[in-house]
Amino acid sequence: MPGHALLSSMLLVVMAHLSRADGAVGTGKSKISAVFMFGDSIVDPGNNNNRLTEARANFPPYGQDFPGGKATGRFSNGRVPGDMLDSKLGVKEFLPPYNGDDLELSDLLTGVAFASGGSGYDPLTSIPATATSSTGQLELFLEYKEKLKTLVGEEEATRVISEGIYFTAMGANDIANNYFSIPLRRHQYDLPSYVNFLISSAVNFTMVSRR
Ligand SMILES: *[C@@H]1O[C@H](CO)[C@@H](O)[C@H](O)[C@H]1NC(C)=O
């Protein structure tokens, strides 16, 4: 099915954004201090919990296989990819939401997720879902960096940021919930040119996040 092939290649594109701020991926000796996650519901651990939106998951049966059976806001019965990557990389067991209520300094020092259910690269995608747009997530990341500097000083903050690893999982809502559901973009772009627009947005997002 062509739609499926397209989504698969979109996913490949988004996953390819796996990058270290210092470009030191796979050098063996590199030590990862923190994990940062941008994206949509696939990787949102509860950033939408206090938001007036349908894109929320802090009620049963979500979380039924999570420790304590708690519906944390993860769009899953259990852990989400950020948690799995976090523990595989030896950083911590769970990647908390940046908008969470009980963030501690140790959480800020080891990474957080800025991902928001319903989000996408296209700014229009986040509007119906009242999600935090990709640009909004970058703004939160800037805010996070400033907060960290205030809390632990410039040098330590720079270490955390530069030894961190960054993931982005976004794009599915742009195709499924925007292009194929709302006519506006279909009047402006045919599918290949909309995909090019998304890829250009993904590249720009990655470049800006590395500044
Ligand atoms: C990405 O950035 C380039 C260079 O600033 C710009 O020309 C282009 O329009 C941007 N693409 C999107 C989709 O915003």
UniProtKB/TrEMBL annotation:
Signal peptide from the UniProt entry: 1-21
InterPro entries: GDSL (IPR001087), GDSL_lipolytic_enzyme (IPR050592), SGNH_hydro_sf (IPR036514)
GO function terms (MF aspect): hydrolase activity, acting on ester bonds
Gene3D superfamilies on file: SGNH hydrolase
Protein's UniProt keywords contain Signal: yes
Superkingdom: Eukaryota
Keyword terms: Signal
Similarity annotation: Belongs to the 'GDSL' lipolytic enzyme family.
Name this protein carries in UniProt: GDSL esterase/lipase
Gene source species: Triticum turgidum subsp. durum
